[in-house]
């Protein structure tokens, strides 16, 4: 719902439980008066600030505008900065009108002198407090350099203190939660890699330093973009705080020619009461309702062949793995790297997306047919944005890669990046994959992207053009092959964001499959992203990445917290292990609807001796509970772990044991998981309301 008070030049944007209030001041600057609990129009009008009793030295508008344009007395972070052809850098924007519906608002501005127009777009949903925003910048005059165009600047109210939450990481250690007091000045989170990155993720949350999982207010924003990005958290000495996020990174600029426009990606913002848990659930609901292409689908249990075979791929070997996976109850078999071109090692073949004739003399059809006979869907690994110099594609088109004249073509993992911003390259990519899908009965693509940009130069058209072309190729392929589902992978979690999630069905969270490490990775991932998209595998012990030995049940229980997959060397598993794995897969299928479509509660974080997570069905009728013990110290018995949001008057039956639990007792005294003695113990409990 959007209300406009024409006399006061004020707009009230309201979701189910919150409101965002913006007002134009005498200088046409959009000042944010409120972002918090839902207000009526009358209540919002009462927020108009009185005249200050004195004239401050600083501009009182600093840190209060949701369109923060560079110019005048503005010296802080400016989300919109340009350089006109004559060298002028200041913007002087005047309001030229607005367009409003029940769910959308456009505030229009133009520069006082130069023929440059700016539109601020806002979008609401009836079932979510998330607000989507983006900018449109149009140039009708001489070419203009857009130095910075953030999608949105979010203005926070004054709080007693400010704490910033984000995730940090690297390859194999993505999405690790980091919380710290917000310092004065500008705190910049960014990726300069051409991809979302393992090192940071384009979202941030701010609270007053007292929020927990289930109490206090949390303000957050997330950028829907899969390339380079920058998010700035600014804390001014006057105790004003803003979050501003957009595509691109310093010092890359965008040249806007005559008659051209720049449309920024969406930056979504959320105010939530009820702590980080409520904020996370609100973000999860928003993605399930308004981001994911097939939110109602239940993701299948998959098997991936990479860790079992590496590049030693053969029809016989893949068939044997598929037969063992089918015995386990797997529903989707994915053949990973090594099936195409001269790809018998990692230095050749990328770009030649044809089955290796020696390994698959009759093409992929015999393997696909056998997988389907076994009752599973068939998936295939591709890395279509990359090329090996040792490939037919590169020998034919060495100019198709991202490069600069007179600079070394830096190889990483023996790869170079194809420049999808060039139309002929993007068209080749679409035609190649379209043909692959048309000629083979493929149900699933694991779409990988294993290296960042290098030698990309300063032109934003490449940095943004590659991402837009990627989106276009994915959109066209999905439209032409609606049965195909896609997993986003980038050496693990290097491309996870709201932009790629509009075009894919799940993401590969991390190449690190160590179950203990995954507890921390999955905890940080869940702050913004739902379990419905979080790919999690069970692999061998000792773990091939860390060397840690962890029991099979622990590995399965950790992976049950998301989209369960298996990636171990099944031919080396004992009959007892295969039989137990089949039991655990069946157990996951029973709780899968709750995990993938229910609401998540992080009961205990993974940094303690004991951690736990709960999932509650939307109708409240079923509960899935997962508990994990790192190590048992001093022989102490575990405490009960209180559950959340149950009916205190209801009775809940343990589906495995038949034991009856009372809702009020579970809420206050908690559930006592039956954990085996020793280290790395775990339990899964499925409760059904009587």
UniProtKB/TrEMBL annotation:
Protein's UniProt name: Alpha-galactosidase
Record keywords, A-Z: Glycosidase, Hydrolase
GO MF term set: alpha-galactosidase activity
Species this protein is from: Sphaerisporangium rhizosphaerae
Gene3D superfamilies: Aldolase class I, alpha-galactosidase from lactobacil brevis, Golgi alpha-mannosidase II
EC number: 3.2.1.22
Domain Glycosyl hydrolase family 36 C-terminal: 611-687
Entries under Pfam families matching the protein: Glyco_hydro_36C, Glyco_hydro_36N, Melibiase
Catalysed transformations (reactions): Hydrolysis of terminal, non-reducing alpha-D-galactose residues in alpha-D-galactosides, including galactose oligosaccharides, galactomannans and galactolipids
Protein family: Belongs to the glycosyl hydrolase.
